[in-house]
Amino acid sequence: MRRSLRLLGSFRFEQTDPARFYGGIAADTADLVRDFYRDLTGRDLGGTTVLDVGGGPGYFADEFAAAGARYIPLEPDPSELHAAGLTVPGTVRGSGMALPIRDDAVDICLSSNVAEHVPNPWLMADEMLRVTRPGGLMVFSYTVWLGPFGGHETGPWHYLGGEYAARRYRCRHGHEPKNRFGRSLFAVRAADGMRWADRSPARTLAAFPRYHPRWAWWLVRIPGLRELFVSNLVVVAAPR
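Structure (tokenized):
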């Protein structure tokens, strides 16, 4: 419960202090990936190659480097790459929906809070599986549209429609939101992720609400309820 409250509380700093917000998310993500990889392989992250699809300026780099992994962020937007003044060697510029990476190239492929920002997130998920070698790990985490954070900085008005929320934000602040509905923010449901996990050729290891304590993971199994209360869905898969 302390972990859940800490992560949920950090959301208020996403716009004003992104290093604080993403630093906490990075540490939690590295722990999550480490635990699943150890369960799957019996090994730690030392010597692994980790591809972070939509890695932005590289906030996660230090956490994975400390675990002994080779961390490679991939980001399509050059402004995001340089947003925090960070430099990560080996950074790749490219689209998550057409990864410029060969098949079976990485041990771990992850994406954290990116799927809601691309028009075809399930094509991106398929691409992430393609580049992950058999026996490796894929971790796909995204913000659910009808959850409390679905509208990002335009919420909670996204419950009245994404376009309405964007217009209201512009009228109130005098500029477009960073996450503009229909351009850089899309409505992705929890059901979409569960459906992808069912049809995927990979073995699904887990699907759970990222910011909830373990006793609340049952929420992902209840249609309707999961759309409102699973603020972020994680799907963990292992290519066969």
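Residues 2-144+188-238 form a domain with the Rossmann fold fold (CATH 3.40.50.150). The chain has a mean pLDDT of 89.
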